[in-house]
Amino acid sequence: MISQLIINNIEKSVNSLFHEMGLNYNEDLKISVEQPSHLEHGDYSTNVAMQLAKVLRKAPIQIADMLKNKLEEEGEMEGLVYKIEVAPPGFINMSIDWNQWVKRDFKFPLNNGEKVVIEHTSINPNKSAHIGHLRNSCIGDSLVRLLKRAGYKVEVHNYIDDLGNQLADTVVGILNIPYKKEHSRFGDFCWDIYSTVNKQYEKNPPLLEQRTNVLHSLEEGIENLSWVGLLVADRIVREHIEEMNEFDIHYDLLVWESNIVREGFWTAAFNLLKKTKQFHQETSGKLEGCWVLKQPTTVAEDTESEHSMDKVLVRSNGILTYTAKDIAYHLWKFGLLEKDFMYKRFSEGLWTTNMNGTDASFGQADIVINVIDHRQEYPQAMVKQALEILGYTKQAEKLRHVSYGVVSLSPAAAMELGLDTTDGKASYAMSGRQGIGIKISDLLDLMEGIIENKRSDKSGLSSRTIAAASIRYYLLRFSLLTEVVFDIQQATEVTGNTGVYLMYSHARAVSILSKAEVDLYSEQVVPNEINHMDKAEYALLRHIATWQDTLYAASNELSPHKICTYAHELATLFNNFYAACPIIKADNDKKAFRLWLTLKFKETIGDALTVLGLPSPDRM
């Protein structure tokens, strides 16, 4: 990777400069390089001289000159970097010799095979999934692809909360609310039942007592009610998995919450926690009878706070909180419980925990990554705290929460669903309890119809495949913590920063290479010499050169949107190049170089599309 090579050389030069001046080098100094936005400023630039101004008590421009001399003296970048310049107020700009670059093999630094367990999707199995759930799944699946590309061994979990209030509500509704309406899917029927029963709770409070009865029955798992809950959850989960398959999202293991409780995983975790001072049963006050994980002094002790019940692991009525089960689950993920599940095949390529199953190899993670929206930050911190309390500090450090902003509805989308938007809000929250939201299946059908109507040539990818890729890209391109204000018109666009644009650009490159009879799968001879590049050629090559750096940064930061940003800019630069520079009709030397550049683009955009989980079509 070019940027890492440059950073290493800058670090050596800074260290040498400090040594000359009799100072200790601060290894915490974060040295970064980036590509200047203006091509005339070179290919890479660093502001390290400005960072050092206060420490060295010199003007940044002076420090930059000193470091420039050091870099030229060291000579380790000689050949690759042919020119180093200093620009006010202290930037160091470097220019690459592209003849040297094409001859070098820059290898992506692969991980040594550490095992990562990634948990994502984890939708309550009580109704059809909506677009907010899909954002979680798209982020999680792209992280799976990204970390596999980076050399990790990745295992994908989908946690099924089959003991929660949401499933209990749907069961109460099915058994108590007369409802008659035609539905093609069970999950859509349950969508309506779930919102209906939540409205009925307000009119008929005794129904809430039935929810408590269902919750107890689900945990015990030995009577009519619990079997009804199991059957509902199983059917809903199968529909969820079918939906995710359409977006090329897959899992290795379904972990059912009921197995954690009924097979003694929580009991094992409970026995470990009881040995610590921080876990105890309250004997008085509002939490009397509850088993509580005591908070550190940095966390407010106000029992009226919105998070007060999150530190309760076992309620006074004996019902476990979600956090309790999650702690047990994470102890198992890291291989810290002397227990394991039994497993059965759920569908092709997918296993599930099942007490009547067989042995299999899951868990035992080196790193655990949970994709859960930002509202669950506190419970995730509780799991980490429990690991630390139990002395598993190494595992606590390796537990990462990938937090993201929720999906809400634009005023136009809300109005289309029949919501009152006269209050003029910028966005409207989805609510399963109120039946407000856009189902994944409905959006996919809508998008497929729009694409089908816009296509003149339908011989490439199916409209449904293109629709799924478009929706997936739309949900990935925002930075993680951004609230996605979902607008149907924006989501169904096929031009601009869209998945369709990226896939079309790949198909265009394949078409050009095919017309030129370039073998896409053979070793291509690199250009003998790169001279006098046109601006569009130079801009494209320069951006291609940063692909591995982008991939490395995205995998370290767990940020799929960085790949989206890179890929969109890459496609834009390629289409600019295509418009400005004749390829097949160019003179021989130019033609060879431009075909090679087109091939490099095709390989790079294809790699990016694969990481994002989008097809790399030969034709659209």
TrEMBL record:
The segment(s) forming the DALR anticodon binding domain are 502-620
Which reaction does this chain catalyze?
tRNA(Arg) + L-arginine + ATP = L-arginyl-tRNA(Arg) + AMP + diphosphate
The residue ranges of the Arginyl tRNA synthetase N-terminal domain are 4-96
Q: What is its EC number?
A: 6.1.1.19
Domain of life of the native organism: Bacteria
Localisation: Cytoplasm
Provide a Gene Ontology MF annotation, just one: ligase activity
Arranged from A to Z, the UniProt key words for this protein are:
Aminoacyl-tRNA synthetase, ATP-binding, Cytoplasm, Ligase, Nucleotide-binding, Protein biosynthesis
InterPro entries found in the cross-reference section: Arg-tRNA-ligase, Arg-tRNA-synth_N, Arg-tRNA-synth_N_sf, ArgRS_core, DALR_anticod-bd, Rossmann-like_a/b/a_fold, tRNAsynth_Ia_anticodon-bd
UniProt similarity note: Belongs to the class-I aminoacyl-tRNA synthetase family.
This protein's assembly is summarised as: Monomer.
Q: What is this protein called?
A: Arginine--tRNA ligase
Organism encoding this protein: Heyndrickxia vini
